[in-house]
Design a protein that fits this description.
Number of strands: 8
Helix content: 25-40%
Strand content: 15-25%
Order of helices and strands: HHEEEEEHHEEE
Shape: globular
Radius of gyration: 19 Å
Distance between the termini: 60 Å
Structural class: alpha+beta
Length: 173
């Protein structure tokens, strides 16, 4: 209340939202993940891209070897460090949960503009518990739908999107 510079710009009645959010946090006592989601929802209400919540005690996180983009309501691999998920593959589910549901959840729990929430969701969907093997349901650009299991490891280097040179002929003519 005393240090937030955007109160005049924000269209949220914070006093009206705080008590229900605190009740939700109290009711979320079933799992550590639910406890983490409660303050994330509170920070998301502030609509400030600087705000975030993390759990330093939660199991160590790793990353999937990809770069994702949300295109419409689809999760598309735009960079890949694993041949089993080629660039252009559409990820339809992560560990049995539809990509559409996961995107909606991460967007709801991120704070900031819609574009920043989308970027945060793309990055959050790459995170996984280190030393596990998440299953992804994918629709590769060539071939039928399939499931792949990939190791979740500490990233050695960030996967980059595959892009043409700055000046390039994409195809003849």
């Amino acid at each position: 209340r005393h240090f937030y510079p955007y109160w005049g710009d924000l269209a949220v009645d914070w006093d009206a939202r705080l008590r229900p959010q605190l009740q939700t946090a109290l009711d979320a006592a079933t799992t550590r993940e639910a406890h983490l989601e409660a303050p994330r929802a509170i920070v998301a209400d502030v609509q400030d891209g600087h705000g975030s919540v993390s759990d330093v005690v939660f199991p160590p996180l790793g990353m999937l070897p990809f770069k994702f983009r949300i295109v419409g309501e689809r999760l598309v691999a735009t960079g890949s460090g694993d041949a089993s998920v080629p660039v252009g593959s559409v990820v339809t589910a992560l560990d049995g949960v539809s990509a559409k549901e996961r995107i909606a959840k991460e967007m709801r729990l991120a704070s900031g503009t819609s574009q920043w929430r989308q970027t945060r969701a793309e990055n959050a969907l790459l995170l996984c518990k280190r030393d596990t093997t998440p299953k992804l349901s994918i629709e590769p650009p060539n071939g039928g739908p399939r499931e792949v299991s990939l190791p979740c490891a500490r990233p050695v280097a960030m996967v980059r999107e595959t892009r043409p040179d700055t000046i390039a002929e994409l195809e003849p003519g």
